[in-house]
Amino acid sequence: MSISRRLFLSVVLLAGLLVIGTQAAGLAANYRASVERQKRHVETAAASLAWVLSQSHTTPAQWQTLATDLQRHGGYALVRIQEHYTGRMIEAGQLSEAPARADGSLQQGRASQIVATRTFRSADGTYVGSVAVYNPVIPILEAPFLTESVAQLVLIVAGLLIWYSYMSRLHDRLQRGPLKRLAHNLAHIGQAGVDPKLAEGLPRELQPLGTALVQSHQRVHDQLRQQRARIDALENETYHDPVTRLPNRKFFNESLRRAVQRDGGVDGHLLIFRQRDMAEINRQMKREATDQWLRLACAQLSKTIKEQAGAGAVLVRINGSDFAALLPGLPSPRAAVLAERLRRELRVLRLPLRTHGWCRWAMVLTPYTVGEQVSDILARLDHALMRAEIAESDEVEPAFSQTGNRIDGEYGWQDILTRALEQHRFFLTLYPRQDAEGQVLHTEAQLTLRDQDSPEPLHAQLFMPPAARLGLSADCDIQAIRMSMDQLVARDGDMVVRVSLPSLEQAHFLKRLEDVLRDRPEQAGHLIIEIDAHGLVDYFHNVQALCEIAARTGVRVGVRRLSEQFAALERLHQLPLAYLKIGGSFVQGITRSPGNQQLADTVIQVARTLDIPAYAEDAEEPVARELLQAIGFRLMQETDNADFLAPRHNWIADLPAAPAAAEDNGDTAAHAPTRTRATDGRPWPPHELGMQRKRQEQSDRRLAEVARALEAQRQVHALLSHELRTPAATISAAAQSLEIILAGSGQEVDSRLARIRRAVTRMIELMNQVLSPERLRRDQALTLRPEPIELGELARDTVEGMRLDTAHPLVLNAEAAVPAWCDPLLTALVLRNLIHNAVKYSPADQPVHIDVGLSYGAHGATAWVAVTDHGPGISDDESQRIFEEHYRRAAHRETPGSGLGLHLARQICQSQDGTLTVQTQLGQGARFVMTLPTPGQAYTDGGNAQAANT
């Protein structure tokens, strides 16, 4: 039941209760009036009878008649006359119960009685008595009153029923009419369904409500319109680029995610192109002009994409210089055709730059399939963009699915490249090249990286694009040149090394390159630096500076991929070049294109003018090979001669398995205490006494200076011990916390944390042992603490500690038991230094051999450790100078180091009665041998020394 009906019903009930109450009150009042009339009637009868008895001379016999007449005619229940003197009582009638009190008040019993009493005295005074009239209360209501009450009750009930019926129909009418209209318009407030003339059709009482509702609707409608406009503006800003009005990166990510969803997705292609010179354009042009150029270019490209790929394709601006075309449902042939058309349009839309020619675009096209991960697609595109940028070409770079390990993002590449540069994880892959007659032309060296997270080595085509983007290409190119010159020490012929064009733009690269080449003039004469032809157009001044350095150092410069940038032909005569090279699709299609043949003939003419050879590679068809040779090109192909890659002689195999044991050659005499001047008891001469005092004073001053210097050194050592422990402990605690927090985050994170923990633990152990308070108090920071050890176990622990942080294979060959008498901490430092040097100066694909054994001689056994590498080797005149303090070989100035490692290592070995020697051959590697005494030999030497002192 509705609230209104409940209200109506409550009103009806309340009115009914009021009517019933009123009628009940009326009936009660009528009853009381009837009782009062009956009482007055009884009292009147009693008074009348008493008056009659008082005025007349009646006898008691007549009293009976009077009482009977009064009882019968009055209808009373009992009339009693009582004479006081004689006690005579005359009664007429009969009571149903005992009478009430004599005072005439009503008495309550089974029936209420009315009693009226009066006294009388006869006229002659003969009789004195009382008259009592009894009558029961008869609840008699008057008929008119009852009729009126019933009529009123019927009218009121009928009125209430009529009112309730009327109000119910009025309520239904309001609900079906005005209230329904009000509810309808209220439900559509702010929408188009509100009647502006709503108030006119409502009752007068509801018209203000209708007017207020229409006004509220108008306000809400205006607010909604403003909010909708604001929301549209925010969505427009959120999903669209403010300059070009193209969808932005957020829209692109959501669209690509929907495109690869398994439900409703469809295979397609994704084309990304990047404006590589956007920063230069912004510097050269005003912002308004740049924005206008971008809007016009994007409008034209969008039109082309819609026409060729359909309405589902969309052009997106990912960021300031990157654009993407999402092409759902477009097959590969049509996607390639569209990409080529966009490439031609972008070439037309290029802007001239002050620095180098025209602005450049890099384009990448990749397919995607339903269910493929978005991160895989973006990583594939990112790496392909790197390749397209370093290629210096506007050709569309395809990006296919990668089957090997994928490296996500610049942060992953930065970690790999930084670790490779620090841990010397590079090596060279050599590709000998020969001409059609089988004559070896040169060897092309390609830098290769061995990473711990990749099962296969990473070639330069993979890591040089991210290195160029991260600004590390110069360091990688320097490594390639240094390792190529190391190879030239042991090999004949020329070696070609490619230098990336981004390296030429980096500061100090050319200076570093010149220093490396000047330090090794013999090898520089056999080195050829190869650059892309795009560099002659885009980086001509840098290439010119490179050629000037090459001319001063004897290095030659070659140009490759000339067929991809024929605009470089006009610059060739300004540079001292060694050769020109063409290849790729230009060579493969030369038989079918007269234009290509004409261009090839032009290249030959330019090469003959410059008196340099012209090479052609990638010529697989016999017809193309004959045509190229007829034009004048020398065909270049890989050689099948595997012996060409082998070094001249494996000198390491000729070395003895163990060094000879130390012989007694009088070296012990050098350690014997020197004898002072002996005296025969004669006094010193007087003039010598004065000189002696002066010498004594000078000695005291020098001793005081030495004491002060030792105290200062002790304080410095204590300060270092204190100040280094705090950050080391902080790093160690932070590394442990990170291991707990990032547990299970991935193998890459876990390996980095483990590397930090190992390095910090090694540093803390070194400080605890070398910079301990006991050693510092006794000035024994590097004082030996020899003890018998198992040298093979020490070498095994050292190698295992270094194996995780190096890409070189560490091959340990230790005899079963090799006892030695030495300080284990300092000996491990020497061995670590030798292994680190072997890793630093040898290619990452060559093993480092650590051999441990015993050799026997005339004075017993000698323990030894040999570390052998396959690096460039050491010349004879430098084989001893490398142990000098702060000595650095000029040929390896680019290799980090201070020149103290080998010097300290030899001193530590000699202080343990051992030796540190080197066996080397230039271009073939080096073998460092550390010898140590055995426990028995140490005890014997110690006893002999004690006997000699006594």
From TrEMBL:
Residues 661-699 are annotated as: Disordered. GO terms for molecular function: cyclic-guanylate-specific phosphodiesterase activity; phosphorelay sensor kinase activity. Residues 690-699 have a biased composition (Basic and acidic residues). Its EC number is 2.7.13.3. Residues 1-24 form the signal peptide. Residues 719-936 form the Histidine kinase domain. Residues 410-663 form the EAL domain. CDD domains: EAL (cd01948), HATPase (cd00075), HisKA (cd00082). This is histidine kinase. It comes from Bordetella pertussis (strain ATCC 9797 / DSM 5571 / CCUG 30873 / LMG 14455 / NCTC 10739 / 18323). The lineage of its organism: Bacteria, Pseudomonadati, Pseudomonadota, Betaproteobacteria, Burkholderiales.
